[in-house]
Amino acid sequence: MRIAIVGAVLTALGLVAVASGVLPLDAVAALAERSAPILGFVVAMTVVAELAAEAGVFRALAERLARMAGGRAILLWLLVVVLATASTVFLSLDTTAVLLTPVVVSLAAHVRLPPIPFALTTVWLANTASLLLPVSNLTNLLAAERLALHPLEFAALMAAPALVAVVVPAVIVLLVRRRELAARFVPDEPAAIGDRPLFWTAVGVLAALVPLLVSGLPVWLPASGAALVLVVVFAVRRRRVLRPGLAPWSLLVFVCGLFLAMQAAHELGATAVLGELAGTGEGPLELLRLTGASALSANAIDNLPAFLALEPFAASPLRTAALLIGVNAGAIVTPWASLATLLWHQRLVAMGVEISWWRYVALGLLVAPLTVAGATLGLALAAG
Length: 384
What we know:
By secondary structure, the protein is an all-alpha fold. It has one domain. The protein is built from 18 helices and no strands.
């Protein structure tokens, strides 16, 4: 609800800018043409993820992970690293934050282990692992659309920094929480699958969706098709689950408000000062300057408006990649640096798990610079 209120205020400010002539109508039309398919993808993927969770796919996956770990916490944690990375890469960081968080917290309770190492791994990787594909993050979708890159071309550009951005946070969790991760546990018996037709339909939809998201089709098309299939099946098997709340209305209002507000700020020239911070050039030091500026901006004002504000100063594919490193992998210090972090915390609170924001910020101040610097150097080395 707070997100919706902030979004409504930003939208109102954007409309005032339109009414006063600060934000021209043709600029609004161009913004709508660019953002509508992306927002459609976000809605469709949220519906797919929510219905897959209702079908029991994520719970079954968590139970399978517990059995595969063989009673060793370190192996269970490594499997969570793999799952969080895959979920973020193929289903987006918000899906990981919203749906995987309760899975890993329940998993920790299921095997009687402390939940914090698993929860921290989830939120950090939700942000840092969101570099590889356009679908991984809304900022990536905006960048790929502007650069007209095929998903595989985008992945080739981002492969080296994406790998570094996964490894560095994982290693730090392992070092900081090594005592908890050295424990052993006895897994319980898995729960029975409630509605097998729903479960296997959801599994099939997800299995078909993942390759389609990297096929080169506009991502909103396969996502919408997957959502439609699941909605139809649930309408037949479990109609009560279908409710307006499946769509992320608060998120939509928030994002629309951000888009309008940042476009108005750009028309006023308010974002020009960021150009001085971002610099120019594509050498390692110049790229580090850009990633540092974008990471600071993301932690100050949220990663989406930071990307929109700095986008004009990252015209080439290489500088755009550096910008994404900063606003995605660097957005792990302040609670508001990414929407995924706020959604993650809401889920923790709902499940009775407490985490100190001061502790979170302190750890983020350690992890973010190492991750951003390492990923940037990986990008520079891969670029030759």
